[in-house]
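Hi R.,

Quick one: here's the UPF0208 membrane protein YfbV sequence you asked about.
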Amino acid sequence: MNLINTFKAGVRYIKLCPTDKQLMHSFPELKIIKHIKTANKYLPPIIIGLLVWQYCLPAQIAVTVITILFALSLPLQGLFWLGRRALSPLPLNLIDCYNQLKLKLIAKKIIAENSTDDNKLTFEAFMNIINLAKLHLGDYFGQDDDSSPYYKD
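And here's the predicted structure, written out as tokens:
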């Protein structure tokens, strides 16, 4: 796997993943995305503070450079992990959920039966199906009304 393709897959995966609190408990990548966005927000002032610290205080230049490089590498490490996660195959317990969501979307005629390649069931494909289900079937991913715990006659 090419390093640049992995980073590009990580960037695509950040844009693709939904930011639902309900899904945060099931998918660790949503927490990683939140941390990457926080780091991108607060990292520039931290680096400027480190440069001012180097200029004003008698600190060693090597310590400052290593600290700045470490701080800059944290979001890159997150992007790399997300890229690897996006391209990795789905575990067996999520394949059933993927197939159920896909069947519900096919039944509502939102996607065609042969629209996706089932040989490549990756986390990126799963997040695509989740986004389609949220958009067209609602927040509960098309749960039938009679099987809902809130359904009353």
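The helical segments are 3-16, 21-24, 28-56, 61-87, 92-107, 123-137.

Cheers,
M.
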